[in-house]
Structure formats: structure tokens, C-alpha cells
Amino acid sequence: MEDLGQSLDHMRHTAPLVHNITNYVAMNVMANVMLAAGASPAMLHAREEVEEFAALAQAITINIGTPSPAWAEAMEMAAKTANAHKTPWVFDPVAVGATAYRRELGPRLLALSPSVIRGNASEILALAGVGTAGKGADATDSVDAAQNAARDLAHQSGGIVAVTGPVDFVTDGDRTALIANGHEMMPRITALGCSLNGIIAAFLVGQDPFDATVAALAYYGLAGEQASQKAEGPASFQTAFIDALYQLDPAALTQGARVTV
Ligand SMILES: Nc1ncnc2c1ncn2[C@@H]1O[C@H](COP(=O)(O)OP(=O)(O)OP(=O)(O)O)[C@@H](O)[C@H]1O
Ligand SMILES: Cc1ncsc1CCO
Ligand SMILES: [Mg+2]
């Protein structure tokens, strides 16, 4: 496993352009989170431009939080462009078990070989076809309960699967890692999971996908821990979290990461 601080340093020096097709809820906070971390986000989804832009991007994220048919078509176009250009892309199957529309759209995107799938435990279970609808965009299952589903999805997709929650679980189907960083205030703010997809995507550029995903999760969780020391509740937590992403330096990440491989 590469030094986690070095991985953060690499991401900041690259300052990668990341194309995000995300949901209406996440768009603003996700862009701010990514800018604070040192990446360069762009949020766009029109079918008329999505292929052209995806071809320019260094990484792509696709999130089905607020889908519609036109967006879904744009998502498939962007994923195919990513594959044609060997550009890494991250898939977030938001609430994929909740409705028939999502249960149909999720597997269509899964079939396009995402480099990383990142979701909460209920989403990973639902995408793997092991049931559980979750509670809308929130999880009702434990990360532990989703470990086997994550391994299956990794084998099926050929990519990395990250299940987030109190302790995050990452696997490529064979290797696994647990990341204990994080704070219980994080799920009290909407779209911090969605925003994390952009951070993972930024870390993927020019780095080993498994190591990059682990480093991104540890960085994100550690920033959450630091933010909690200044927050009085969810609203001030969000502000402190964005500041912590900006302030956290590589040496502090290497020292503060709680990763078990
Ligand atoms: N109870 C918790 N304690 C510590 N960290 C947590 C907890 N729950 C979530 N996190 C952290 O919050 C971040 C977002 O993960 P989460 O699983 O909440 O995503 P999500 O459910 O997809 O969120 P959203 O859909 O609102 O964007 C991750 O870094 C994760 O480690
Ligand atoms: C709350 C919510 N609803 C649809 S997407 C989203 C953001 C968290 O996934
Ligand atoms: Mg989510």
C-alpha cells in the first residue's frame, strides 16, 4: 500500500479536471468539497455536450440520485466515452433498490465497467441483487452485511467497490481494506457521500485504483473527524468539513489514517 499522504499530494499536484453527472441535491456541495480538496470539478449533463466534455476530463463521476430519461442517456454516453479514452469513472447507485426505474438503470450503468462503485451498504446490496431497498438515499443495512455483495460486484464489474458507513470497506474482489476514519455527523449532512465520489475520482487520476480509493476515504474521514471538533451541529459541521479538506496536509493524513489492509 502506497503512503496515503503521498497519494493526497499527488492528487493536489495533478488538480484533475473531473466531470460530474450528479444529482440536483449534491451539485453545489460536491463542487465546493472538490475545490477545497484541490480538484477541479465541472457539473454538466446535457446530451448535446456530454461526450465532448467527457473526452476532455481526467476522471468522471456518475450518480443516479435524481435521474430522468435524458440524464440516463447522458450517463451512458459519458461512461462509454470514459471507457473509450481509458478515463477512470466512479458510479454511485443512489437508492438503486428504491424504484423499478432505478433497478433497471443501475445494472445498465454497472454493465459499463465502472472503475469504482461507491455506495452505502443498502445500495451495494441492492445493486448486487441481494435485496434491500434501503430508506431512499439512506442505508438500513450494516457495512459488514454488504461485504460479500461488494466482493461479488467487484468481480462482476472488474473494478473496485467501496461501501461507506461508520467503517468503510473497500475491495477489488480479492484485496480488502477497512477504513475507520469518519464521524457520525457525516450522514447528518446531505450529499457527503455523493461529494466523496468526486474526491475518489480525483485520487484515481494517475494512481493505482485500490490504493487511491483507500487514500481518498481515509482523507475524507479524517477531515470529518477534524471538522467535528469545531462543529456545533450539522450546518456548522459542513462549513468546518470544507475547511478541514482544505487544511489537511499529507503528513497529517499519513499519521491520522486508520486503515487495516
Ligand atoms: N456513522 C458514521 N460514522 C463515521 N463516518 C460515517 C458514518 N456514516 C457515514 N460516514 C462517512 O460519511 C461519508 C459518506 O458516507 P455515507 O455512507 O453516509 O454516504 P451516502 O449514504 O451515500 O450519503 P449521501 O447519499 O447522503 O451522499 C463516508 O466518508 C463515510 O465514511
Ligand atoms: C437526498 C437525496 N435525494 C435524492 S439524491 C439525494 C442526495 C443524497 O444521495
Ligand atoms: Mg448516497
Summarize the structure.
With 261 residues, the protein is an alpha/beta fold. Helix content is 49%, strand content 15%.
Structural features, described:
The chain is built from 11 helices and 9 strands. With 261 residues, it is an alpha/beta fold. It starts with a helix and ends with a strand. 49% of the residues lie in helices and 15% in strands. It has one domain: Ribokinase (UDP-N-acetylmuramoyl-L-alanine:D-glutamate ligase, 3-Layer(aba) Sandwich), CATH 3.40.1190.20. Strand 7 (168-171) and strand 8 form a beta hairpin. Helix 1 packs antiparallel against helix 11, helix 2 (27-37) runs parallel beside helix 10 (234-247) and helix 6 crosses helix 7 (147-157). The longest helix is centred in the C-terminal third of the chain and has 20 residues, at 209-228. Adenosine-5'-triphosphate (ATP) is lined by residues 94, 120, 137, 139, 164-166, 168, 182-184, 186-187, 190-194, 196, 220-221.
Secondary-structure element order, N to C: HEHEHEHEHEHHEEEHHHHE
Tally of individual domains: 1
Rg calculated over all Cα atoms: 16 Å
CATH H-tier superfamily: Ribokinase
Helix fraction bin: 40-55%
Alpha-beta classification = alpha/beta
- Mean pLDDT comes to 97
Main sheet overview: 9 strands, mixed
Binding site for ATP: 118, 164
Pfam families: HK (PF02110)
Keywords: ATP-binding, Kinase, Magnesium, Metal-binding, Nucleotide-binding, Thiamine biosynthesis, Transferase
Cofactor: Mg(2+)
